[in-house]
Amino acid sequence: MKPKTTLNLFKNFLAIELKKHLLLFLAFAYEKVSPKPSMLFLASILLLNSSITYSQSSSCKATIQVEKNRFTQSVPPEGTSYTIQISNTGSSNSTYTLSSSNVNSSCSNNDGSNVSGNVNLNVSFSDASLNSISEISLSPGETASFLVNVKVPVGTTVSRWNCTEITATATACSSYKVSTILHTLVSDPNQE
Asked: Which range marks the domain in which residue 154 is found?
């Protein structure tokens, strides 16, 4: 896993901001020169705006998956971990911010039980050395693994499910997200 490279983020940010400012300049400069915009001018603005959108979408692509498709586990009171792999399939360096959310009401339990009995669990992220992380920086084509650590809060009802969505959001394109859902069963230590 690479450390966060602010230089690459800064270059991408500058390119996008430069295009936006150029677009604004052209719009205001043209208003001063001609009160009626020509089709060529309008086409130029449309083309420039499309290139901004395309450059963001082609640079912000990724995949995220649970290692060996083990997206279902039981968790003992001391906790468990899932290994997640994230790949930068885009065309530029990207940093992905990691987040988790309980999606108990919108998932289905593996055993068909009612989701109304699902419980919330505590989730954190770490690298392979168990250092706490909140983001991952990847070069194009690079893949990295990280751990999703799941802990059972004291007093949680056993033999209940939890559904947690793990999301990676590209910092350069905040609307681009990839996610996967983990299904965790809180095991009963008295039955093991």
From this structure: 62-191
37 Cβ neighbours under 8 A, 6+ residues apart: 30
Is residue 41 classed as helix, strand or coil in its secondary structure? helix
Residue 140, token pair as written in the block: 């194009």
User: So what's the pLDDT on residue 11?
Assistant: 42
Which pLDDT value is given to residue 191?
A: 78
User: 57, exposed or middle or buried, with CB in 10 Å at 0-12, 13-18, 19+?
Assistant: middle
Specify the DSSP class assigned to residue 108.
Answer: -
Give a yes or no: residue 99 inside a domain. yes
Helix (H) or strand (E) holding 163: strand 161-170
Give every residue of the chain whose pLDDT is below 50, as ranges.
1-14, 18, 43, 45-56
**Based on the domain organization, do 40 and 66 belong to the same domain?**
no
CA-to-CA distance for 46 and 49, rounded, in angstroms?
5
CA atoms of 153 and 163, how far apart (whole Å): 15
This prediction has a pTM of 0.70
* Alpha-carbon Rg for the chain in angstroms: 23
Q: Which amino acid is at 74?
A: S
Parallel, antiparallel or unpaired: strands 177-186 and 122-126: unpaired
